[in-house]
Design a protein that fits this description.
Layout lengths: L2 E3 L13 H4 L1 H12 L7 E2 L6 H4 L5 H8 L5 H7 L5 H24 L1 E4 L20 H11 L6 E5 L6 H6 L6 E8 L12 E5 L5 H19 L3 E5 L17 H17 L4 E4 L8 H19 L1
Parallel strand pairs: 1-2, 1-3, 3-8, 4-5, 4-7, 5-6, 7-8
Helix pairs in contact: 2-11, 6-7, 9-10, 10-11
C-alpha cells in the first residue's frame, strides 16, 4: 500500500503573504482523495523527528539557535520565512514524515511525503524556504540503522540541491545527483557527485533526453539499495521561479522515468515534493498529483 506523510499542520502557520505557495499542502490531498487515487488509509500522521536524529546531520549550535528562535535577521531573511516556534515545529514534523515514509518504502517499495524536499538546508544554516534537510536526515537514518548501504539522491527540482551536496560531500555511501537550471538559484552552486546544469527554456524532449542519458547509467554505476527522489515541479514553463520550459506532460514523463527505473530494479524509493511556484495553483497541484498517480500505477 502507498503510504503518504501528511498533516494539516503542513499548510500552517505562515502569515497571509506566504500562504499561496503553501496552499498545495491543503489542496493536493483533497484532489487525490476526490479523484480516487488514494483513500484516507493511504495517509499517515508524521511524528516529529527526535533531536538526536536531527543532530546526526545538522550542527548542534545551529539547531540550538534555530530551536531557540535565535537566528539573526539576515539568517532569517535567507530562509525566506519569518521565524516562529510553530514554523520550527512544522519543519521537524516534515523531517519525521520523510523518515517514516522511507520506512514504508522499505516495506512496500515506495513511500511519499506531501511536503519535504528541503534541499537548501546545510549542516549549519538554512536558506531558500528550507530550515532542515529531510532527505539528508532520512538517508542518514537508513545508514545509521543498517537499513541501506548505498543511497542515491535524485534531485530534479529546478534549483540545485546545494545543501544536500554539502552535507554528503565526504560521505561515499550517499551519491548526490542534481539536474537543475544552470542559471537559477543558488548563485553559488555546491559540488554534487553529479551535477547536470540545464539551459534556460529547455523543453520536454531535450530535458528527457538528458535524464535518460544519465539516470539509467547512474543506477548501474552507483547500484543503490535506496533512492530518495526530490520531485519539485518548478521545472514547468509556467513556474515563476523556474526558467525552464517543461509541460505538465513532460514533468509527468520525468517522474515516470524515475519511478519505472526504481521499480524495475526493485529499489525502494521515497519521494518528497519539493518546489512549485506556477501562477495558477491548479498547475502546481496537477503536476504534484501526477507523481502520486504514477506511484500507484507503477508500484501498486
Amino acid at each position: 500500500m502507498l503510504k503518504i506523510a501528511w498533516s494539516p499542520e503542513y499548510a500552517h502557520p505562515l502569515p497571509e503573504n506566504h500562504r499561496f505557495p503553501m496552499l498545495k499542502y491543503e489542496l493536493l490531498p483533497q484532489q487525490l482523495l476526490y479523484e480516487g487515487t488514494v483513500t484516507q488509509e493511504n495517509f499517515f500522521q508524521p511524528a516529529s523527528l527526535p533531536e538526536e536524529r536531527i543532530l546526526r546531520v545538522h550542527a548542534k549550535e545551529y539547531w540550538r539557535r534555530l530551536h531557540g528562535l535565535e537566528l539573526t535577521p539576515s539568517e532569517i531573511r535567507r530562509t525566506g520565512f519569518p521565524l516562529s516556534k510553530e514554523l520550527v515545529a512544522r519543519e521537524v514534523m516534515i523531517m519525521g514524515g520523510t523518515v517514516m515514509a522511507a520506512e514504508f518504502a522499505l516495506e512496500y517499495g515506495m513511500g511519499m511525503n506531501i511536503a519535504g524536499g528541503t534541499h537548501h538546508a546545510f549542516t549549519d544554516r538554512g536558506e531558500g524556504f528550507c530550515l532542515l534537510n529531510d532527505n539528508a536526515l532520512a538517508a542518514q537514518y537508513l545508514l545509521d540503522e543498517g537499513k541501506a548501504q548505498k543511497v542515491l539522491i535524485v534531485d530534479l527540482d529546478v534549483h540545485q540541491g546545494n545543501g544536500t551536496a554539502q552535507i554528503f560531500a565526504e560521505e561515499p555511501r550517499v551519491f548526490t545527483f542534481s539536474m537543475h537550471g544552470g542559471n537559477n538559484y543558488p548563485l553559488h552552486k555546491e559540488k554534487s557527485d553529479l551535477d547536470v546544469p540545464l539551459p534556460d527554456g529547455i523543453g520536454d524532449a531535450d530535458y528527457l533526453k538528458l535524464l535518460r542519458e544519465h539516470l539509467p547509467a547512474l543506477m548501474e554505476q552507483v547500484n543503490p539499495d535506496f533512492v530518495f527522489f526530490q520531485s519539485g515541479v518548478d521545472v514547468l514553463a509556467s513556474d515563476k521561479l523556474g526558467k525552464l520550459g517543461l509541460t505538465l506532460a513532460g514533468c509527468k514523463e520525468r517522474d515516470r522515468l524515475v519511478l519505472d527505473l526504481c521499480h524495475q530494479r526493485r529499489i525502494p524509493v521515497c519521494a518528497s515534493m519539493g518546489g512549485g511556484y506556477s501562477t495558477r495553483i491548479a498547475d502546481i497541484v496537477e503536476a504534484h498529483a501526477n507523481t502520486f498517480r504514477l506511484a500507484q500505477q507503477i508500484f501498486f
